[in-house]
Amino acid sequence: MKQPLAYVHPDAKVADNVVIEPFVSIDHDVVIGEGTRIGSGVTILPGTRIGKNCNIFPGAVIGAVPQDLKFKGEYSTVEIGDNNVIREYVTINRGTSAKGKTVVGSNCLIMAYVHIAHDCIVGNNVILVNSTQLAGEVCIDDWAIIGGMSAIHQFVRIGSHVMISGGSLVRKDVPPFIKAGREPLSYVGINSIGLRRRQFNNEKIREVQDIYRYIYQKGLNTGQAVEIIEAEMPATPERDEVLLFVKDSKRGIIRGYFPD
């Protein structure tokens, strides 16, 4: 359903049952899937792909060119999955030649005033709380929750099932399954409540706790901790996910918490 006060470019591919409210602008080279709702004043620019059953609230701008001085007008896209809620005044920029696309998965909640910069990869079931700011090429894995008004440095990776406290400055990679808080951002335990909500049993939660005791609580450096975990703990999906994350970290992982 299109309101007469909305503009939809004739080359845009919009499913028949998409709801388009007044003062929306949808440019060419845009694809919007079935059941999606586009709120008043939303601007959707070329290269945007939006899946099914998304709810985009007033004032959001999706597909604007990157805020990157290296961008030279190359073709790039924004790809958004299904069942996402994108609240008021969210901005999601297109990719650059670095990755060619900015990606948001499915079943995400992107709260008001969030910015997702060029070439970011946001997984499935992610929650970005109000005014969270993602710099370029940030990667956020599935089920992560980022507290409001947090700022994520470019190239940072945040692991799956992570919870980061509001107002955080995230300068280093945050490995899976943990909570992070304080300043500078530090390990403050595993995200046991979140893991239980996602059907991790007590045995798995204890295993994750044991992994992070080696990494953060036994006075070992990261390399030593990885060697001991590989030698002494049996291979499991959770163990291997943590080890692979730590080994692949380009910026290094956040520090442990040491009280004054």
Automatic annotation (TrEMBL):
<dbReference type="InterPro" id="IPR011004">
    <property type="entry name" value="Trimer_LpxA-like_sf"/>
</dbReference>
<dbReference type="GO" id="GO:0008780">
    <property type="term" value="F:acyl-[acyl-carrier-protein]-UDP-N-acetylglucosamine O-acyltransferase activity"/>
</dbReference>
<keyword id="KW-0808">Transferase</keyword>
<dbReference type="InterPro" id="IPR029098">
    <property type="entry name" value="Acetyltransf_C"/>
</dbReference>
<keyword id="KW-0677">Repeat</keyword>
<dbReference type="GO" id="GO:0009245">
    <property type="term" value="P:lipid A biosynthetic process"/>
</dbReference>
<dbReference type="InterPro" id="IPR001451">
    <property type="entry name" value="Hexapep"/>
</dbReference>
<dbReference type="InterPro" id="IPR037157">
    <property type="entry name" value="Acetyltransf_C_sf"/>
</dbReference>
<dbReference type="InterPro" id="IPR010137">
    <property type="entry name" value="Lipid_A_LpxA"/>
</dbReference>
<keyword id="KW-0443">Lipid metabolism</keyword>
<keyword id="KW-0441">Lipid A biosynthesis</keyword>
<feature type="domain" description="UDP N-acetylglucosamine O-acyltransferase C-terminal">
    <location>
        <begin position="173"/>
        <end position="254"/>
    </location>
</feature>
<keyword id="KW-0963">Cytoplasm</keyword>
<protein>
    <submittedName>
        <fullName>Acyl-ACP--UDP-N-acetylglucosamine O-acyltransferase</fullName>
        <ecNumber>2.3.1.129</ecNumber>
    </submittedName>
</protein>
<dbReference type="GO" id="GO:0016020">
    <property type="term" value="C:membrane"/>
</dbReference>
<dbReference type="InterPro" id="IPR018357">
    <property type="entry name" value="Hexapep_transf_CS"/>
</dbReference>
<keyword id="KW-0444">Lipid biosynthesis</keyword>
<dbReference type="Pfam" id="PF00132">
    <property type="entry name" value="Hexapep"/>
</dbReference>
<dbReference type="Pfam" id="PF13720">
    <property type="entry name" value="Acetyltransf_11"/>
</dbReference>
<keyword id="KW-0012">Acyltransferase</keyword>
